[in-house]
Amino acid sequence: MKRELVVVIDFGGQYNQLVARRVRECNVYCEIYSYKTPLEKIKEMDPKGIILTGGPNSCYEANSPTCSKELFEMGIPVLGLCYGAQLMQHVLGGKVEKADAREYGKTALTHKNNSILFEGVPESSTVWMSHFDYISKVADGFEITSYTDNCPCASCEDVKNQNYAIQFHPEVLHTEYGKTILKNYVMNVCKCSGDWRMDAFVDEQIKQIRKKVGDGKVLCALSGGVDSSVAAVLLSKAIGNQLTCVFVDHGLLRKNEGDEVEAVFGPEGEYDLNFIRVNAQERYYEKLKGVTEPERKRKIIGEEFIRVFEEEAKKIGKVDFLVQGTIYPDVVESGLGGESAVIKSHHNVGGLPDVVDFKEIIEPLRDLFKDEVRKVGLELGIPDYLVFRQPFPGPGLGIRIIGEVTAEKVRIVQDADAIYREEIAKAGLDRTIGQYFAALTNMRSVGVMGDERTYDYAIALRAVNTVDFMTAEAAQIPYDVLNKVMSRIINEVRGVNRVMYDITSKPPGTIEFE
Length: 514
Ligand code: XMP
Known about the structure:
It is a single chain. The protein is of the alpha/beta class. Helix content is 32%, strand content 24%. It contains 15 helices and 18 strands. The strands form 3 sheets. It has a 9-stranded mixed sheet with strand order 2-1-3-4-9-8-7-5-6, with helices on both faces. A 5-stranded parallel sheet has the order 12-11-10-13-14, with helices on both faces. α7 (257-265) links the parallel β11 and β12 (275-279). α14 runs antiparallel to α15. The radius of gyration is 26 Å and the shape is globular. It starts with a strand and ends in a 13-residue tail after the last strand. Xanthosine-5'-monophosphate is lined by residues 298, 347-348, 391, 393-395, 435, 469, 506, 510-512. Catalyzes the synthesis of GMP from XMP.
């Protein structure tokens, strides 16, 4: 059976991956291509629909990204979003002009006739706008289907030729009925059946990886985090023992984490990863001796990682490909959109490309969001507790210990954190809190235990809820849970006599406690 495909044509907008994601949420496979992709190539793919994305340019300016008129005449339904909508009108003979004022943010929209795109959408709803230019005259054959106070044409369509233009952004969550609108396009206009699932993504990636790698050798830095684990297992399914995975235990992992990672991915586990564990704890502690400044710690940890990895890579000999678990938010964070894409060294394994002699980087998860990566992980049979693991920074506990890092302090924070995680899970809160962990403050204070005076450390508990990790609120953990955690930490972790709960939001705080 032929796979249904919707092609997203990238004009440099910031929400392009979100568009693709919304299509995938309709269980329809979706790929993003640059606007420079030849029309012939798009035709060959025989897509069920084509979506033109937003972009920062003005379509009437000479060197702006454009497309040919033929794109709209192939009988394939085209949906233009924002810049894509304006470009569609411009190319087909409508008029796009600079507006008096930029329309930005949540805006009230009214749709006025029975457009198939607005099926199930109330006559008035909120949409997300972000544009300077506006469509002042629609092209022949188009009918305006919605408007806002400042935008006479918020959407229009030429049903006969199957061309649809939307000025607002249905892909962002601020557009109340955005998902409905995109679903209407994918299912009712493009007539997709929606039978694609993540297993199809896995099959597709495996095929592509095999084709690319041939009989080459592949090296992967496995951290045990979700992204690199999923990438490694995907690679191992595709190319078996042509893959070697190096796991560096820097001694700054959570309690028992090194052994857990080894149990799943090592020789006793069920995957064929040529797993190499490097126990580099002592090296790291040595390098971190006397270092208190957080940025310096990060730097040292990062550099040491590269050194250890380099040594291992040398032992393996020539490799052809390097795998990275880069996911889409990493691409965004480093300011790289599809249109300006260059290879980014993932912040967890930063700098690796420079020290390993290889032909190419493989990033099989590059187009996916975190929850999609998790779906792939489940599809690959990776255990739940690894798939739903919370984010853990590359520098590990090194940045959850204020002041100098020592083996003793690592032990304290590991033990406290393990208790905290255990109690949060027992209380059934582990899947509801965005990120939570214990950190070791550098503060010691007087306490009394039994009949003795103590002078010990204070543990800080952190728990935040966040959508995008850019902003966050402290989670409101029930007091009895906090109380239990406090009591267990004080009783079970030697060297701690106070427990505090950090209620700072981000901003002004950060999520990590360093
Ligand atoms: P902050 O502390 O900046 O954290 O609010 C935001 C998110 O990023 C994670 N984080 C890191 N991840 N290397 C990483 O791989 C790092 O150096 C690093 N610093 C922070 C943090 O855990 C949170 O999820």
